[in-house]
Structures
1.
Amino acid sequence: MSFDLLQNKIREKKNPTAAGLDPRADYIPPHIREACLKEYGETLKAEAEAAYLFTCGLMDALCDIVPAVKPQSAFYEMLGWQGMEVLERTIRYAKEKNFFVILDGKRGDIGSTAEAYSAAFLGEVSVGSQTYRPFPCDALTINAYLGSDGIQPFLHDSLAHDTCFFALVKTSNASSGELQDLVAGDRLVYRVVGDLLERLGRGLEGKYGFTPLGAVVGATYPSDLHQLRRRLEHTFFLVPGYGAQGGSAADVRYAFNKLGHGAIVNSSRGIMCAWQHTGKNGLDYQDAARNAAIAMREDIRNYVTVV
């Protein structure tokens, strides 16, 4: 069970956090970008290689502290095939560094299209007598708002290949309530989606009591987070919104059960861009990221004890 693997890694490091990898050009230290532009010219390949060097350097600095990384697919896709080739290399490098890899792609569709998305990131692809894992992630974010038809293909591959996924339930953005907080019958819409994940996962609980169907629940709505944790006993949470988006350690504590299990809190800008606040023009980006990750870990430890 893939969430058992994640929980084991969290317990090993006593750190329930993930480092987001969102390699926007303005997040990458100037010396890295300048070197790649000099070698490859003003091309998409230059930007892609700069992203790769930066994120690999971050992972080198964080691998003994942080159990998971969360590459954001959009920042690779925008660089064309060169970006997608670098995404594949980045995922494989992360696995070499023993990270749990969550691909943030928010994929969502039905039928054969959902099956194709799932095969790419959670399953495998056959070519003649050979099989391949194109993007060998441990987990993928998906959009569950198409209903069970948009969830089942990902669940099928999760069970077959020991992977898992996080479905959008209550997101951290300011306008999420425009749809997610509407009343549907006797429940709010986001609770309907959460209940659906629990129902589809019934009987699939792993060692720590969690099914392969996780939920994205934002730190920016702590009361909703608290209610969902009590409501979705067997659902593992991915918690965005800590730090730059306004969520605090006091807020994210509600994502965990009494053993400090069942959630992982993501920080992207807070770790990636820590170098922008040291006055050294990015030459210390690894030390800055490491110090930010340690500070985040200690901040959350003030409220959450992982048993």
2.
Amino acid sequence: MQNKTVVRSMDILNLFLTHSKLSFNEIVHFSGIPKTSVYRMVMSLEEMGLLDKDRDGKYSLGLLFLRFGHLVAARLDIREVALPIMQKLHDKVGEAVNLLVQDGNEAICIEKLDTKQHVRLYTAIGRRTPLYAGACSRVILAFQPQYEREQYLEQIELKPIASGTITDKERLRILLEESQKTGFTASHSELENYISAVAAPIFNNKGYIIAGISVSGLEVNYQKDLLPPLVEKVKGAALEISREFGYTDKCLCLG
């Protein structure tokens, strides 16, 4: 059942798809909503940053929409560019291939190709994971600017999720430093027991981390002697995507 206030608020916001600015009376007129209800909703939308009011008293969409718009556009761009490269990687390894981006203190999966094996994995499109747990989340954390990484480590509580989740901050720091040197991250039973993953960072033209790509599957397929070929394939895919965003070996990587 739809919430009436939410639906009416969306009706008001939708007016700005065809009007750049509207006065209060124009919003009442075009929406057909009673004036007292419009007043309450417009005040709330303005407080939340969804509407802005100028000196003439006219309303327009707030800057918050611009922020959301940049995030959505960037994520869609990454997904669109990465998907064919993810497909090639999937064809080579037969494992699940995942694409994650940072969202605050978490990583969110924005694309996934399922494993060819009959096994259900933790990762799904829209699934969120803490930056410290799992190869793909942690590779994003590893290549953040140092001050951002340290700020995160100081304030985060490392909670166990599966049997291999890292809950010691010093060990986590060591693993993050190793990832910066090797260019990849591996995880075993960190988000789900008996599931492993290998991930590599995706950079933009300025050397900033913008996403992580990983392959994941049953832990038995990720033992030490089996890792090197997987690592090279994942790193190769990550580099190919990065180059699509203008990254070169000369870019300053801010890890």
3.
Amino acid sequence: MENGNPCRGGRRNPSAVSVIEFERLEQQIADLETSAVCALSMLLDLKDLRTGLHTTRLTEWALRVGELLGLPEDQLRDIENASMLHDIGKIGLPDKVLFKPGKLTEDETRLMRKHSEYGWGILRKIPCLENTSLLVLHHHESFDGSGYPGGLKGDRIPLGARIVAVVDAFDAMLSTRSYRQGLPMEEAMRRLRQSAGTQFDPKIVELFERIADSDLHEVSQLATSAA
């Protein structure tokens, strides 16, 4: 009698083998993706130690917005990766520009804006991060088309990039830097609302405001006290 249990030497069911192999391959890809994201995130931390808490906050907020939108797991994963790696291109910027304490010159601003393209160039080479690379490329686009690098407008901007844009800007406004004091949460949120429809997707701002109203006060205190 044929035995379908491969552990007992019988002939294996081809369809069962295919499922097992597919699941094993899927897990390997997922593990590779996680390892790549963690390694790149650590590399970015070596360039700028301030990025650690920044990306942790961004990731949590972006995922919560994505969950409110009811996004599927694969899109949430891309958003998580993009939140962690949106600034990875800054490793290609000279320290004198990245850490300049004062206002950037026009040439320095143009160079700083290259970081999203640098990030895309890095991430698109990693097969499991191709979708993430597009979110990183476009996270400085503006809803009215005035952003960079592509001047994309409205729904042409990938949804994940629109989410990262909102939470990134909010955290940047809260955070204290060597050249400026962080804003109070209420003022940062007021500026987000003011820029809804121009710089930011109004729907994303609306959803993020729900999160802010519920439990961001404690986090904002940590952000404004960070150097």
4.
Amino acid sequence: MEMVQLIGIGTAYVVMGIIVLLVAKIAADLMTPFSLRSELTVKDNPAVGLVLVGYFAGVVIIYLGAVIGPDPEELLSSVEIASMMAVDFAYAIGGILFLNIGRWVVDRLVLHQFSSVKEIIEDRNVGTGAVECGCLIATALIVAGAIHGESGPEWWAGPISAIVFFVLGQMALVAFGWFYQWMTRYDIHAEIEQDNVAAGAALGFSMLAMGIIVLRAVAGDIESWSETLTWFVIDVAMGFVMLMILRKVTDALFLPGTTIQHEIATDKNLNAAWIEGTVATGIAAIIFFVV
């Protein structure tokens, strides 16, 4: 009977996941100042498609963060199952709201020197789409970590910790976006606005790598707020330093005879962006699972 119940619960969660994706689609339609259907299927706008890739990938990540947990040790009543699924659904829907807020934050504070909507809709700027895609997935990782794990016995402890870590995670992402511009010799905003896809892809990948680092900082159970926040600061600071060092390492080991700066800003070389991004996300993943 336990196996039958687990299969039934798993099937119900798959159906609920589809419902969450539909809710996310409706939310995107309502919160986007242009017709997604027109941009995707009539105008074939690749920048919009890239943003939606990040958005729906983020929704799936958040949903998994909400629902993944240990299997029940004994048979549950129908009321217990319904209650469990209702809580998970509420967290997933709240996560979609956070995801849309995160996109707004990125547009206003990271890509603040031009209008992201204009670049994506009028200019069909794939570089801008790449930045938003990376930031959406990074935000989703942070939200998934924030809503996963135990925060305390009180019913309000989970939502409060999720909000706190979402805010802290967004602050870390924005700060890293500014830090990335500081350690990059070329003007990132100018390059992206001039349709340099390589510059947008490199920043998008780097933001994703930072999202993995911040996920490490916010994931897990909270036993002590002071200890948790201390480790949050340590993990974020380590991420800043590691990703800065990685740019030098990538130049030396993977792009001998040239530099990432030259390949991206002068040659607009997407290959350099792919290499930088893959190394950055790969090392971030290693830090997450090993360190």
